[in-house]
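Handover notes (outgoing to incoming on-call)

Open items:
1. HNH endonuclease: sequence verified, structure written out, both below. Nothing else pending on this one.
2. Nothing else urgent.
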Amino acid sequence: MSDPICPLCTRPIPPDVKQSLHHLIPKLKGGKGGPTVLLHHICHREIHATLTEAELARDFSTIEALRDHPRLQKFISWVRKRPPGFLSKVPGGRRKR
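HNH endonuclease C-alpha cells:
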C-alpha cells in the first residue's frame, strides 16, 4: 500500500514522518467530531502559524481555501522542494495577532 498524500503540499507522508490530523473547522469553533485531514506536521504547524481559529472556521475550512491563502501558497511552493520527511521550524514565525 502506498503512503498517504498530504492534501496541502501533495507530498507523500511515510509512516516514520511526523504527521498530524487537522480539523477543517477548529474544535474550538464547533468542529469537534467534524472532518479531519492527515497532514505533514510541518504543514499543519504552518496553517496554525498563519491563521487564527476564527479565520480557519470562517474562511479557510477547506483544503482548497487553505491552498489559496498567499502565505500558505509561498510555504507550499517552498516545502514541495523538500523530501517528505523534512522537518524545520516554521519559517517566519507566528503571525502577529
